[in-house]
Amino acid sequence: MSSGITKTASGGPASTARLRGVAWYQHPRWSRLTAMVAIAVVLTMVTGEQGTDRDIFFALREDFTGPLPWIWLGLCLLVWTVREFWSEPIRKVRRASVAKSDPPVAWVRGQWRGDRRIRQLVLAALVAVAAFAPMGLERYWHQVLVDQIAIYVLLAIGLNVVIGWAGMLDLGFVAFFAIGAYSAAFWTGALPVDPPFELNNFLVIPVAVLTCLIAGLILGAPTLRLRGDYLAIVTLGFHEIVYITAKNVEDFTGGARGVSGVEHFSIDMGFSYEWKLDPLPYYWLLLGFIVLLVFLFMRLEHSRVGRAWTAIREDQVAAAATGVNTVRFKLMAFAIGASTSGIAGVAYASKVGYFNPENFPLLASVLVLAYVIFGGMGSIPGVLFGAAFLVWLPEVLRDYVDPRDRYMYLGALLVIMMIYRPQGVWPSKRRQRELKMATEGTVDGDATAAPAGGKVS
Amino acid sequence: MSTTKLAKEPEGTEPTAAPALLELRDLRVFYGAIEALKGVNLSVREGEVVALLGANGAGKSTTLRTASGMLSPRSGEVLLRGERIDGIKPHNLVRFGIGHVPEGRRVFARMTVRENLEMGAYRFKSPDQDEMDRIFGLFPRLAERSSQLGGTLSGGEQQMLAIGRALMGKPELLLLDEPSMGLAPLVVQQIFEILREINQQGTTVLLVEQNAAQALQLADRGYVLETGTVAMHEEASALLADPRVRAAYLGEIAE
Ligand SMILES: Nc1ncnc2c1ncn2[C@@H]1O[C@H](COP(=O)(O)OP(=O)(O)O)[C@@H](O)[C@H]1O
Ligand SMILES: [Mg+2]
């Protein structure tokens, strides 16, 4: 009996010590190490032997018995070591060079901060590179650039308005893309029903934008009082309605067989010029829209509209009490997002000429959402990068891995990213702040805050 | 009993000539089937501080929400300077000079103090810097924390910020819902001092409070709500002396 008492007596303080203590693996340094090891494993699988259907363990056996994992592990550990142990000296050197106002560094920084024209010039140069660099690429990459990258970047900057700025979780976003594509098919006479008059593809763009805008309002109006999960479900339903309609109303949409023979863009003014199969004109058209919309949206972000969206995202009651028309701005976000994907839809339909409802699966909505979150919700450069990178990645992986496995690696990347850098690659200042506060327990966050085991930092 | 029940009095019978800035007439408000306000009559004259007291669930917040347009009454009228304003949406009512500091403060947690104040001036093209300086003058603690995030402020500071944000909209009538809730006595005192100052600078105040002692010291007149009806309506000093009020709200045993 007495031994039991001593056990509890000594067990008390011992267990509090255990609870108070921070296990070594909870230190952020080690959790970052785990991340690097995970990346090394993924890279080994990407670059190593690919699996076969006959022997499911073949790839794992081959990959992890050779030198490959050690090479990747070594590289990743090197990165980690530099980050953990040499970052301070590096930072010191950099700080010293700035403090000494080392002429070139300080000068460049000063110019960048001080002079608007320099910033504009650099941006113009970037756009020029984006416009002309692809001319040196192979035809395959031209296709990828247009059919995939440019289209998804456009979709992502549209969705960013809805979710990143107005804070509304929209899982049916690709429905608007579909509506844009079917509008293009309808007005160029590719659907089973004839339009009242046929339009040139360029003229279809404003018509499709208007159609999507109205569709956005139709989706937005009944969902105004919903938030978060509930809104997500409603938008999911909206996507399903559009998708099934496209599939089943054969007399109007062509049903599951799809639409073929959507005309290419053409210019017919005295001279006539049709964009045939060369993807580059489409790329430039889309790039033009992306640049234009990025410019407009950046202005919007810092305008009264952007402030209203931020306020609504934070607290709708308080926003209304300060004079924000919450209904109008929520609808506006929906409509802007929808019209952006309408543009993408027209360009896509005209470019590929043939499409069917399977081109607009729910997965596409989810992927666009993933691009936005990966890049950094609410941050335009982040979203541009996120979409471009994540669409590009499976395409390059095609050369290294079994094409059927490509999305698995994308999935692994997203998992690693969300665990170790939930704010995204290039987060907006505001989102970064939100996440930090959520971790500290000051306010609710969208992404979850501290892990259940407690966070040390 | 010296309570004057305010029963459907026409405007003219009020002793003072000043027209009521805000008047609630026979207001009935429902939440679904629940009748939260069962015919409330209340008036606030220009320049006054009016306190609205009552137990939890009496309908104080409902009254304020109806006055600021967040709720629409099923019957009855809300009048601002004699014009009906019930049914006008809250974001439009802000333009008529009604500022609402909602229950639980509701500062924008992830905006800085300055951004919160700028948001308060949303109805103007750009925030008035002089007004901002005036508010920072009223609340020096906010000035010190102008770039701190709203959500990281203490309760008292958040209340100050909520009041400051409402003031940025330059309201004629400030509706305050329990500004003392959950705050230390000293902080409550500070906030009431500032409310007095705000009132002296020309803003009319309708104040919902549980803290009857503080509220009645500040107020000119007071109303007591009980389960959706006005039970008492008197000069603040008379209410403060009323044994029933003292028993119910000041923790004294009624003789
Ligand atoms: N959103 C709501 N839905 C249903 N009933 C409500 C709602 N808000 C308040 N009530 C009810 O209305 C009555 C008055 O509430 P309220 O005005 O908040 O009281 P007070 O502010 O005086 O404490 C209470 O009985 C409360 O339960
Ligand atoms: Mg209340």
Automatic annotation (TrEMBL), chain A:
Transmembrane segments: 30-48, 68-86, 118-137, 149-166, 173-190, 202-221, 282-300, 331-350, 362-394, 406-423
Entry keyword set: Cell membrane, Membrane, Transmembrane, Transmembrane helix
Residue ranges, annotated region (Disordered): 438-457
Topology versus the membrane: Multi-pass membrane protein
Pfam families: BPD_transp_2
Main location: membrane
Subcellular location, record wording: Cell membrane
PANTHER family, A to Z: HIGH-AFFINITY BRANCHED-CHAIN AMINO ACID TRANSPORT PROTEIN BRAE, HIGH-AFFINITY BRANCHED-CHAIN AMINO ACID TRANSPORT SYSTEM PERMEASE
Protein name, as recorded: Branched-chain amino acid ABC transporter permease
Species of origin: Streptomyces gossypii
UniProtKB/TrEMBL annotation, chain B:
Keywords tagged on the record: Amino-acid transport, ATP-binding, Nucleotide-binding, Transport
GO molecular function: ATP binding
PROSITE patterns for this protein: ABC_TRANSPORTER_1, ABC_TRANSPORTER_2
ABC transporter domain location: 22-252
CDD domains: ABC_TM1139_LivF_branched
Pfam name, any one: ABC_tran
Domain of life: Bacteria
Assigned protein family: Belongs to the ABC transporter superfamily.
Protein name: ABC transporter ATP-binding protein
Species per Swiss-Prot/TrEMBL record: Streptomyces gossypii
